[in-house]
Amino acid sequence: MKSIFSYTFLRLSILLSFTAVGYLIGLRDLTLIVVAFLASGIVSLFVLNKSRDQLSTSVTSFFQRTNKRIDAAAEKEDKNLDS
Predict the structure, then answer these.
(1) Which residues, including other chains, have CB under 8 Å from residue 54's CB and lie 6 or more apart?
(2) What span, in angstroms and rounded, lies between the C-alpha atoms of 70 and 75?
(3) What is the DSSP letter of 25?
(4) Mean pLDDT over each residue of the chain, to the nearest integer
(5) Nearest-CA neighbor of 14 among 38, 5, 28?
(6) Is the pTM of this model over 0.85?
(7) Which of 10, 45, 56, 68 has the most CB atoms at less than 10 Å from its CB?
């Protein structure tokens, strides 16, 4: 869960930084939003690589644990039905 918040915070920080810089150089309205999203997306693709790997590991392990619990419950239910 910590990796989700960490990655989200870093991603939003980069987006807000590009938005502020774009505003300071004179971009306004839709142009500012589009440029900020594109630039922050490109930068975060390289800068947040390690954080994104940690996030994906965290999410994958969460769903693996959930799937194991579901399989265990299904197996227990099957055993109860067979008896």
Answers:
(1) 3, 6, 7
(2) 9
(3) T
(4) 93
(5) 38
(6) no
(7) 10
Q: Which amino acid is at 52?
A: R
The full length of the chain comes to 83
Write out the two tokens for 68.
């194991």
End-to-end CA distance of the chain: give it in Å, rounded. Answer: 40
Placement of tokens 């690589």 in the chain: 49
Between CA 21 and CA 43 the distance in angstroms is 14
By the 8 A CB rule, do 44 and 14 touch?
yes
The reported pLDDT for the residue numbered 47 is 95
Rounded Cα–Cα distance for residues 48 and 25 (Å): 25
What DSSP string describes 2-40?
HHHHHHHHHHHHHHHHHHHHHHHTT--HHHHHHHHHHHH
